[in-house]
Structure formats: structure tokens, C-alpha cells
Amino acid sequence: MHAHRPLATTLLVLTGLVLTACDSVEFVHPLTGTTPFDEQKEVEGMWLQEDNAVHVNYLSNECALLGSLEFKDGAYHIEQMPAWFVARGDCRYVNIRGNGDDGSTNYSLARYRLTDSGDLVVWGAHVPSFAKAVEQGTLTGSVERGTHATSVVVENSSSALNSFIDLHTDVFQYTEPLIFRRAK
């Protein structure tokens, strides 16, 4: 099971995954694609979803830094993680690199879309779909099933992951989107 990571919790609530007691999917290698440079200004800034706030700032033309502030145990904790927003055809994805207490630097993956009204709609990886793909040998990795959670680690190369995602765009939680609104 994964250790609690404040920004991962904030961001992966964004993707439908709370790492402390729910299902999760991690990727050893990121999904790759072209960087949607024309969308950087639309993605950059502060985003709000219920009680969650995530700030996106670009460090370079390709890498963004996601930051959050959490009040826990009587103190404020600032957490930040690098992220890469990529395009594959008409689809947009974000890879978020973790910095787990166990030294893991695996990635989380979500699909996103910017709406005409300016919202950011995010769909997390669908754990049962990735678990099935690993168990059937379509993807390489491991599936760990606990009493209350399933954890999937996908070990395929970026190239193999790209091919899988291009053929299986249905592996995201489309029935459970999280909608972020830009902070004014």
C-alpha cells in the first residue's frame, strides 16, 4: 500500500484516487506525446475543486510544477510535484511524478479536457481496467489486492504504454470526473 502523500492525495482526488485507502494505478514510465504549448496559459494558475486547491506553474516549456497547501496535525504543509501535460491526437493527459516516502518516483496518469466555459475536467485511471490488462498479460506489471484496495503498478516502457492508451482510451473513470474551476 502507498504512503500518504498530501499533494498526491489532493491531485489524485483530482484523478479519483486517494492513495491512503482506495484503489490506485502507478506507472514506472510516463505516457509521452507532444506538449500542447498553446494550452499552457489555459492550464497554468490556481484550480479549485470542493475543498481542494492546486496551483499549476510551468518551470520550462515541458515541465509544470503542481503545488498544494494542506493543514494537518496543527501545521501547514506545502507539497509540490512535477507534472507533464501531453497530447496524443485529440486527447490530453497529465503525468504526475510522485515522491513517495518509500523512494518511489512512479507516475500517476489522468486524462483531462479544458471546457469552453474554462473548467478543467479530469478523469483518473480506471483501476479495474488496468488490473485486468496486467493480469491478462496485455501490460507488464503487478496487481496487489488488499481487503479494501487494489494497487496496480504498470512497468511497461513509455512506447508500450503509448500504444496501449492509443488503443484503449476507455481505461479512464469517465463516470467519475472531477471538475476544477479556475480561481478568480
Describe this structure in words.
The protein has 184 residues and is of the alpha+beta class. The chain has one domain. The chain has four helices and eleven strands; from the N terminus they run αβαβββββββαββαβ. The protein has helices spanning 6-14, 40-43, 127-135, 158-167; strands spanning 24-27, 45-49, 52-58, 63-72, 75-88, 91-97, 107-114, 120-124, 141-145, 150-154, 178-182. An eight-stranded antiparallel beta barrel has the order 2-3-4-5-6-7-8-11. Strands 1-10-9 form a three-stranded mixed β-sheet, covered by helices on one side. Mean pLDDT is 85; it is low at 1-10 and 12-21.
How do you describe this structure in short?
With 184 residues, this protein is of the alpha+beta class. It is 17% helix and 41% strand. The chain has one domain.
Task: Please describe the structure with a list of short key phrases separated by commas or semicolons.
single chain; alpha+beta; eight-stranded antiparallel beta barrel; three-stranded mixed beta sheet; 17% helix; globular
